[in-house]
Design goal:
This protein has helices spanning 10-13, 101-109, 122-125, 136-141, 147-165, 230-241, 294-302, and strands at residues 17-21, 29-32, 53-56, 72-77, 84-90, 93-100, 116-117, 127-133, 169-184, 192-193, 215-219, 222-228, 244-247, 255-260, 304-320. It is of the alpha+beta class. The strands form three sheets. It has a five-stranded antiparallel sheet. A five-stranded antiparallel sheet has the order 2-11-12-14-10. Strands 3, 7, 9, 13 and 15 form a five-stranded mixed sheet that branches.
Length: 327
């Protein structure tokens, strides 16, 4: 795991997504990287894609025991009118502000936005504030688990929340989808190795006002990372391009990088506002129209290359979902 804010406090170690403040940070998204889980594509069965399997959102663990769930959950419509999104786990508590139903689905099932299909339009536009409390027994046991198991338990609780309050039912299938392979370009990488222990005095600051490794900032036509692994760069490029990006660079270690390009129309879906609303980064200055495309910028500035390919990916079909009652 990339060094991050985890040493500051226990709840930081369970942070799923740290302060995505589009309006608050002038059109940029700020990520604490352990909050960005990797999608887990499944291999299709011989002869083609797997047939869909329909189930409610809540699942059971491999032991056959019921999945963990929150003890108390409050869900209210977000009427703030801004584009601020904040999702985090603290000891014994899950808090989300300004999230859409699709945000919750992608987080609960460890998939990207383009891997969720179907459903009514409001799952992308209507935003909610959620406060949920874990049972004391779970709150006491989670800190004792390894990070990957803590994240999995957290996802299972959000799945249970979706099944209970949103009446979510999904069909799971695997499809061969267009993707990109991120590889080293012909002349080799142009990446700066991160220095262990760097506090980045002139770099991106975390919520505590201190610079850290393991942080990425993304805005229209610009991406900055400090102390990041290439797999996390691939993850954000995937969100930007709307296709899976597979890290096939073979590069190990953590890097400091800056990437600047001219966005194409429709590029950068993650920076859009709700349907019918204003886009979040309208306060940010538009990028230079004469700059390179993201494909050219990756090759010229990072010494990497995106090559078209196809890859099996899990696709979640929304069979049923309801707006949650307010409480």
């Amino acid at each position: 795991m990339i060094p991050n804010l985890a040493n500051k406090a226990n709840f930081i170690g369970r942070l799923l997504l740290t302060t995505i403040g589009i309006a608050a940070v002038g059109g940029f998204l700020l990520f604490s990287l352990p909050s960005i889980p990797q999608a887990r594509a499944q291999s299709p069965q011989a002869g083609g894609a797997q047939p869909p399997a329909t189930a409610s959102a809540q699942s059971t663990q491999t032991t056959g025991e019921p999945s963990p769930s929150f003890e108390v959950t409050s869900i209210k419509p977000n009427r703030s009118g801004d584009m601020f999104i904040r999702i985090m786990f603290q000891p014994g508590r899950f808090t989300a502000n300004g999230v859409t139903t699709k945000h919750l689905i992608t987080m609960a099932y460890n998939v990207k936005d383009f891997q969720v299909a179907g459903g009514p339009g409001w799952i992308n536009s209507e935003r909610y504030d959620i406060e949920a409390k874990e049972p004391d027994s779970i709150a006491e046991e989670l800190p004792k688990l390894p990070p990957d198991q803590r994240e999995e338990q957290s996802r299972l609780m959000i799945q249970a929340l979706l099944a209970d309050r949103f009446k979510l039912k999904l069909s799971h299938t695997t499809k061969e989808l267009p993707a990109y392979a991120l590889v080293v370009a012909k002349n080799g990488p142009k990446l700066q190795q991160a220095r262990p222990g760097d506090t980045y005095p002139k770099g991106i600051k975390g919520p505590d006002g201190v610079g850290h490794a393991g942080v990425m900032r993304m805005g229209p036509g610009e991406l900055t990372g400090q102390g990041i692994a290439i797999k996390f760069l691939a993850r954000l490029l995937s969100e930007q391009l709307g296709r899976d990006v597979l890290d096939q660079t073979g590069l190990k270690g953590n890097y400091d990088l800056t990437l600047k390009w001219t966005p194409e129309p429709g590029e950068g879906m993650m920076l859009r506002g709700p349907e019918g609303g204003n886009p979040g980064p309208e306060s940010a200055p538009p990028p230079e129209s004469s700059g390179p495309s993201i494909f050219t910028a990756i090759q010229e500035q990072l010494g990497l290359k995106l090559e078209p390919t196809k890859a099996p990916a899990e696709v979640l079909m929304i069979d049923h979902v309801e707006k949650p009652s307010e409480n």
